[in-house]
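Now for one record.
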Amino acid sequence: MSLGSLIQEIRQHMERGELQNEAAVSQGVVLPILNDLGWPVFDTGLVIPQYPLEGRRVDYALCSRPDRPVIFVEVKAIGKADGADRQLFEYAFHKGVPLAILTDGKEWHFYLPAEEGEYQERRVYKLDIIEREPTDIARYFERYLKYDRVCSGEALEAARSDYQDVSRRRKIKATLPKAWVRLIEERDEILLELLAEKVEDLCGYKPEPEVCSQYISNIPTIAPQPPGERPPKPTPVPEPEPVLTGAFTLAQLAQKSLSGSNPTSIRINSTDFSTRNWSDLCIKLVQWLLNNGYLSASHLPVYNAAGKRKYFINSKPEHEDPKKDGLWKPVGNLHVDVKYSVRANVKNIIHMLEHINASSLDIKISL
């Protein structure tokens, strides 16, 4: 009998109410499935029933070689498996068994006890033999529980690979809302550019980065929720942060909120230059780099920090994508695009200095 046919037969037994207790589930579901998967169910050195463990017992210990358990199987009556995972984990941890299975016959839960997280987070897969298609059920049983795959280590390797994928997706799902909030709070340059381009698409006019930044700063940071989940209570819009003042390195500025800040001067090594705004600061820095041999036409083009087909400095006043807008200022025989947000200007300067190997310059900006 194929495993798919066996699953169909087990379903019929369940529908007729013939599996009333743990013993019936063991004899009518667990052992037939193990037998079909190649386990020598009558060899009590490899399929050990009621495996003893310091006064406690695991329903089945499956061994790759005599008395060396690699899988624990805990069996419960149908609908009675809730809460049994804690006991199963204690067994598996104590013995160092890498794979643990909890089943009530209908549902099969495959766990990797040695991985990180709460019990449910260490579940690799949940298989419901009533709800799933027989071919799908057979595929997963063979993937995790087929005798020769367990003995070769392929089954455990597959379980760990699937766990990593589940863990990755869980972490992505948990982090997406945080990332969205961070983009809003930091007014990321790419987000500002996308917003400006969409405004231009809709009305024909492209807003300045500062206009987009101000709009985003007024959006309450409510993270989008996955479908079907209850949205959280709205997060109150925080009070504006005080305007930053003082003298800072570029690395320090890159980590701070620069909303409303305006540079009054820039010190390059031991030379001070007064500045009216961020655009003026960029122009004077680029001019100093040109005059002192740090920057030349051989370095061009210098992309912006986001690298989104836009330049910070170019030999002519246009971007790689000519459709991208800019506010170009001539500096010697170069052109600097100063149409960036405050944070983007700081990132662009850092990126430029790295590009021309001038990151060691002593630069401080006073706000």
Remarks:
- The mean pLDDT is 84.
- The domain at 3-166 is CATH 3.90.1570.30 (tt1808, chain A).
- Residues 154-186 form the longest helix (33 residues).
- The two ends are 79 Å apart (CA to CA).
